[in-house]
Amino acid sequence: MHIHGLSVEQALASLNTTAAGLAGPEAARRLAEFGPNHVEEVGREHLLIGFAREFTHFFAIILWIGAALAFLAEHFDPGQGMARLGVAIVGVIIVNGVFSFWQEYKAEKAVAALRQLLPQKVQVLRGGEVTQLLASGLVPGDVVLLAEGDFVPADCRLIETLALRVNTATITGESLPKARTTEASTEDSPVYARNLVLAGTSVVSGEARAVVYATGMRTEFGRIAHLTQTAGTGSSPLQREIARLSRIVAVLATGMGVVLYFVGQAVGLPPLENLLFAIGIIVANVPEGLLPTVTLSLAMATQRMARRNALVRHLPAVEALGSTTTICCDKTGTLTQNRMSVQRLWLGGGFLDVGDLAGQARLREDNRELFANAAFCHNLKIVEANGRHKLLGDPMEAALASIGRQMTGELAAYRRIDEIPFDTDRKRMSVLCATPRGRMLYCKGAPETVIAACGHVQFDAGLVPLDPVVRTRLLAAQRQMAEAGLRVLAFAHVAVPDGMPGEEHGMILSGLVGLEDPPRPEVPEAVARCATAGIRIIMVTGDHPQTALAIARRIGMVKTENPMVISGDQLRSISPAQLQLALDAKEIIFARVAAEQKMLIVQALQKKGEIVAVTGDGVNDAPALKTADIGIAMGIGGTDVAKEAADLILLDDNFASIVAAIEEGRAVFDNIRKFLTYILSSNIPELVPYLAFVLFRIPLPLTIIQILAVDLGTDMLPALALGAEKPDPGVMQRPPRARHERLLSWSLLARAYLFLGVLEAAAAMAVFFVVLNAAGWTWGVNLDRTDPLYLQATSACLATIVVMQMMNVVLCRHPSKSAFALGLFGNRYILMGLAAELAVILFIIYTPPGQWLFGTAAIGAEVWLLALVGAALMWALEEMRKAWLRRRLSP
């Protein structure tokens, strides 16, 4: 039998200990047997292996192969700049790897955070003597002393309690502190057993003695830690798309290189020259600038999100958030404010909202016993700070005491004499106070127990006997408040003659008070925006089903009469297939769920093809946060464990910030497509010169090092500028991207390769031939690589590609909207990118270092003019295409 099912005596006997604790030698022996009381690390990947992985993913391997081929070509034909090309490609790999590794460096700190939550020292009985020792030294069988404000150091079975209440939110997710007792429990799960206190929870009020029965990784706390450490971390949608793009690029580049190598052989190209040609084809088809551009674009998006109070810990999570289809949202502290407040009262026979109390002196006088009850019937500590009184302890009692102190007259005239503490059988608490009207017993607790001890009810017209009709009316009021999501307490009082003990019978019911953990005011609008954006929200909470449903209705998450509500007990009894089918419900809420159950819900949604985001703040949320496509933790109220397991941290604990982050995430995907179109467009004008070189036996119009000048030099900053585009105004008006929708679509490839790229290639080749023909070159005449005419012709080809790309960056800002509609000054980074692109090409063509490095020569103004004509033509044709597309898409 579980220890919580045993009596106190049986529990002590099962652990071979006594209420006086263990003897010192026995405790030392058990410490050697069971080990220290701390969370252990499971075997994890070495830091160097994680670092190496950043340099061995598929796209990096493609670049490594490209660098190796460049060094190979330099070996066979020295002096052609291939070594510089190889060094540049290796530099790209290193910069990307180091940057990505740095972003991920602190991703696996959950275990350290778990340790920090455990208390450092604890009061322990050893051989009947109270001693203080480190929590790590606790062993099963130790008897610990717990008081208000203490963290629980291990899983313990209570053996003595005095008005004990425990905050279990970090384990169960429940917002209200729970009373604890020493009596045997029939609960199946130790998490909800009323005679246990678990590691990582805290004592809100009261005192207790408890015997330790589990330490370290054997605790519920340690079990959650193990789930967090061993939960798999899947790849994000963007990572999968980049991997797919890498495979396509690899097949395309390699295939074209091999095919055209044999074409070169067939037309009689010398073997060495043919090898260089094949390498050029491969390099021209590999967008070397794509990976750094994606990485830096995501980094820029994280900065924008940080300004909107969303801190991104893992770069791919930026885009993953934008593709989210379902949010599994915790209630306490996420949708609600995680603080109790009085909302409604039933006084004098009718309801009264708390806002109507202000300024009603007559109301205060008529109900003075209820407010005095609220002000004094509690176990709070009242401390003075900065001239003001502060209430420390149970947040529910603090909310009641606060309103009671506001509505009660002279507080100094009241004095507590005695207390009948709360216990789970009576479900109520009472205090005996000396008041200006004599001695009064004030009682508060669960309505069913308090009403049972009352003989009369206070109405506006006076006292009314508590007959069946009045009782029915009371129960209806209680039910109405509960259905509104309020925690209902009954208040009663009775005068106690001097010399008589205070007893809880024959009391007068003062009224009912409804408390709630209110929703955040901005949450309903955020929920509505998610609905408009096609994002489903599922509440997954450890709180009571009725409370969860009431909050869901208030924030607009539930609108139908009969939503599906599944409890943790029900979840344990259904199969994975049944769970997946249940998730088809239009509106569904999960309540009273445990840590591993949250993971099951996330995994079931993922099996249905959903991109799942999970929000949470407690230790119990960490496994689900790590399993989800994107985990979102609360930055203020969240535990360190939740933060370390998450991909995104909300700095203001504001659910509305999730919507802003989703908007940015969707913009990231759109922006990646924009600069992907821009980058891939230049592949065609880089490829066509090599095809012409082989097929038509002309001088090579563009060298490999010049290709790299475009991919890693001139194109980089404009591509980043596209990555900084603001979200489109309609981005949150459309449903989430379909899971099968690809980053590299056929329409994108057609636009980049078959339209924009062809226009750029045609213009570049035309200008190349104009320069050659103007100098008297005739077809079939081969030019030396150092010939001034050849250097000028290749420079003209390079300059034209750059000018065309400068126009292209403006055209790629939107796939269908006109460049005029967007305005050039809407994105200042575009202007900066264009200025940088122009500065780089001028450096390459007109400075000695640039000419030496890239094999260029100065060109005349007429070349630039021809390039501008080509750019203007491309702009006109693209605007015509966009206009045709808008007409086709318009209703």
UniProtKB/TrEMBL annotation:
Keyword Membrane set for record: yes
Record's keyword terms, sorted: ATP-binding, Cell membrane, Membrane, Nucleotide-binding, Translocase, Transmembrane, Transmembrane helix
Keyword Nucleotidyltransferase: no
Top-level taxonomic group: Bacteria
Positions of the Cation-transporting P-type ATPase N-terminal domain: 2-75
Transmembrane segments: 55-73, 85-102, 245-263, 275-299, 743-769, 789-809, 829-846, 852-877
Classification via PROSITE patterns: ATPASE_E1_E2 (PS00154)
A Gene Ontology molecular function term of the record: P-type ion transporter activity
Pfam family, one: Hydrolase_3
GO cellular component terms, A-Z: plasma membrane
Topology term for the membrane: Multi-pass membrane protein
Localization: Cell membrane
PANTHER family: CATION TRANSPORTING ATPASE, SODIUM/POTASSIUM-TRANSPORTING ATPASE SUBUNIT ALPHA
Family: Belongs to the cation transport ATPase (P-type) (TC 3.A.3) family. Type IIA subfamily.
Protein's name according to its UniProt entry: HAD superfamily P-type ATPase
